[in-house]
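REQUEST FORM: STRUCTURE PREDICTION
Request ID: SP-0412
Submitted by: Lab K.M.
Chain count: 1
Length (residues): 124
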Amino acid sequence: MAIKVLIVDDDPNLLVSLDSLPRREGYEVHMACDGQEAMEALAKLHPARVVLDVTMPRKNGDEVCAAVRVCHECDDIQIMMLSAKGREADIAKGLTLGANACMTQPFSTQGLTQKVAHMLQAVA
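STATUS: Completed
RESULT:
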C-alpha cells in the first residue's frame, strides 16, 4: 500500500508542480485547494504527510494545522507549512501550532520539491 501525501494550496500552478515528485517516487498523492477540502481529505484519507499552505480560503493553514494536532488519531501525520510570511514570528507560529517544518515564499520549485522529498524519505 502506497504512502499517502496530501498537498493543500489554493494556487493550482503550485499543486501541479508538487504533484509529480511524490507520484514519481510511488506515493499516493491527493490534492486539496482550500482548508475545508483539506479537513475533509484528512478525515477520509489519513495521509502520512501534508504539505500545507498557510493563506487559503474557507480555512487557513494555521486552522488546519491546529485541528490536526488536537486529533489524537492524527499524531503521526507530519506537516510542512508553506507561507508567504517570512518573519521569524510567522515561522515560530507555524511550529508552535504543530508543523514539523516551515518553508517561506518565494521559493524555487526545485527547493520546495527537495524539501518535500526529504520529508517523504522520512516515511520510507
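NOTES: The radius of gyration is 13 Å.
Reviewed by: T.R.
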